[in-house]
Design goal:
Chain lengths: 279, 348
């Protein structure tokens, strides 16, 4: 499409409200937090980060956050890929299937977490089933640990993965699979060689969304985790609200931002390797 | 025996039947076109042969073997798509090498065959490009090379040139025909472009509503259409009935007409091209005269077209005569006897 030039300051009027809003309410606070973490007694210092990194507790929380987020991302990819592939290629009721896939997004994460409490609790349906079937003699503790947090994360962010994948899969013409078939590729090979590499950019978008979501989610780890399964987001809350240590809270927040950006760029690099022509 | 045979095929989607009791035979080494307007079933037929879809009934016989249920990837047919369907994430080399990779051909041989094929389609030096870095004509040649490099038993073309501009289309169809004759493969070519298919094919099958109306050499179809549909398709515009009575063929109004051949039966539909009808002033003696009145005069540059109303229907006449008749002129049409074509009494 041809782009028309806008006269005079009209473009400014179009983007200024949005830019102002973001500058005033996001960028300024963000940078003021950033500066506060690099100063001690009014001069530049890395002490705040030094303290943080040396703390064994922080190391544990940091490791857990990254580990659970990566695990959830992988699980979402594994569960989401076949689902998106089915909806895109074979489903006769695409609209309905998509609505079902994104339906969980209409419910608040708080309510979803409470639902998991009902499902995974000592008297929940999962435990009742396991005991009744005879797999275990006593109910297992499925709640308030990394397991329940991961389950919560996956359920929270799977729709985003499916939507990202669907978007890209729908843009892959069926011709390509047929061409691969006519050249001698069985269905699965055609999927592996053609559909998968071409879907990678959607996978990456989805992975970035899921990973960022997991890293920053607060209610799910708070409600489905316990005090010994803290993650970075709950740690920020603890520092800020319980310990009233705003500077440390800010430092943790900074770490979260940097890690999220780092991992996202790694995802992007990987996708470039698999499909060099992806945009 | 025919190389490929479709026997009593029924095919379609759900309740929408596109082909019913469809039959087709293709001889080894022939270049056969399926010609028809959209929705006539030509693409359905091609996809069925390729193995992209399965018939609801009937069988596909190839080289004496029933391949109706042989899966797509085991058929060894080359397919060239209208959309080219090149793999966008692979270089030209990898695109062309794909089929060889699937056949586990060695690295050295693959390299040699791919480069040979690229050179055959005049794309030397393009092997490192990606499809999006190439023009439409170049992409279609990559698609052609990719389909041919596997030494297919049969080449299938689905309107391969319709995304190209007119000039390139003419160039590419000559190219395709040249390569086909050089390599000697059997080809089935689907198109809705009459000129294209007449230019390129040994045989043309004209399809209408899921049925082959006529399958013949291009010249035969052009000169001896068998049905009114075909006749209209190849440029006949004047149709009239011929009835045999009192030992002569007569028009509906009873005037006797000389015809080029004897036919058994008593009622036929006949046709004649606008170029083969001569126009004379009223009263001038001529053979097979049909009197009429000029309804419309259209100046077409090199010639003039008249629509003439007669007792046996409206006739379209194209003539390069310098005498111009105005609307309302009384004229005589001369239907040259050896230009009148009998149409089989079906589809009338």
């Amino acid at each position: 499409m041809k782009k028309r030039a806008l006269r005079g300051g009209v473009w400014l009027a179009l983007i200024l409200p949005g830019v102002l809003f973001i500058t005033v309410f996001m960028l300024i606070p963000l940078f003021s937090i950033l500066f506060s973490t690099f100063s001690a007694d009014g001069s530049f210092s890395l002490d705040n980060y030094g303290k943080l990194i040396q703390s064994v507790y922080f190391q544990q929380v940091f490791g857990r956050s990254v580990r659970l987020s990566l695990l959830s991302t992988v699980l979402c990819a594994v569960l989401g890929f076949p689902c998106a592939y089915y909806i895109s290629r074979y489903s006769k009721r695409k609209g309905l299937m998509m609505a079902l896939a994104v339906f969980p997004m209409f419910t608040s994460p708080v309510i979803r977490s409470f639902s998991w409490m009902v499902i995974l609790g000592r008297k929940g349906i999962v435990n009742q089933f396991l005991v009744n079937v005879g797999l275990f003699s006593r109910p297992q503790s499925l709640l308030y640990n990394e397991f329940s947090m991961t389950v919560g994360f996956v359920q929270l962010f799977l729709p985003q993965m499916i939507l990202s994948l669907l978007g890209i899969m729908d843009s892959i013409p069926e011709d390509l699979t047929e061409a691969a078939g006519s050249l001698g590729a069985p269905r699965f090979v055609a999927f592996l060689r053609i559909v998968f590499p071409l879907s990678v950019s959607g996978l990456v978008t989805g992975a970035v969304l899921v990973f960022t979501g997991c890293m920053t989610a607060y209610t799910t780890p708070q409600l489905l985790g316990a005090t010994d399964t803290q993650v970075l987001s709950t740690m920020v809350y603890q520092y800020a609200m319980s310990l009233r240590d705003w500077v440390q809270a800010s430092a943790v927040a900074m770490v979260m931002i940097v890690v999220t950006m780092l991992i996202s760029s790694v995802f992007n690099r990987l996708s470039k390797k698999i499909n060099p022509m992806a945009t | 025996m025919a190389l490929l045979e479709l026997k009593d095929i029924t095919a379609g989607y759900d309740k929408n039947i596109i082909l019913r009791d469809f039959n087709l035979q293709v001889e080894r080494g022939h270049f056969v076109s399926l010609l028809g307007s959209s929705g006539c079933g030509k693409t359905t037929t091609l996809r069925l042969i390729a193995g992209f879809s399965q018939p609801q009934a009937g069988s596909v016989i190839f080289d004496g073997r029933d391949i109706t249920h042989v899966p797509l990837h085991k058929r060894n047919f080359g397919f060239v798509f209208q959309s080219y369907a090149l793999f966008p994430h692979m270089t030209v080399f990898d695109n062309v090498a794909f089929g060889l990779k699937m056949r586990k051909v060695g690295k050295e041989e693959t390299r040699k065959r791919v480069l040979d094929m690229l050179s055959l389609v005049d794309l030397d030096g393009f092997e490192k490009r990606y499809p999006r870095e190439m023009s439409g004509g170049q992409r279609q040649r990559v698609a052609l090379a990719r389909a041919m490099v596997i030494n297919p038993d049969l080449m299938l073309f689905d309107e391969p040139l319709s995304n190209l501009d007119a000039k390139l289309r003419v160039k590419m169809r000559v190219e395709i025909r040249r390569i086909q004759q050089e390599l000697g493969f059997t080809a089935i070519y689907v198109t809705h472009d009459q000129e294209e298919c007449f230019a390129i094919s040994d045989e043309v099958a004209i399809m209408n509503k899921g049925v082959i109306e006529q399958m013949d050499s291009p010249a035969h179809i052009f000169n001896r259409p068998r049905t009114e549909f075909i006749a209209r398709f190849v440029g006949f515009e004047n149709f009239f009935d011929l009835i045999r009575s009192d030992g002569a063929w007569r028009t509906q109004s009873g005037d006797p007409l000389r015809v080029p051949e004897e036919k058994t039966g008593s009622t036929y539909r006949a046709c004649i091209r606008p170029e083969d009808v001569k126009i004379h002033p009223q009263g001038e003696p001529c053979e097979n005269a049909v009197p009429g009145e000029v309804l419309v005069t259209t100046f077409l540059g090199r010639n003039v077209q008249y629509n003439v109303g007669t007792a046996i229907g409206e006739f379209t006449v194209k003539t390069d005569q310098s005498v111009v008749y105005s609307i309302g002129s009384k004229v005589q049409l001369e239907l040259s006897a050896n230009k009148i074509i009998f149409i089989d009494p079906i589809n009338t």
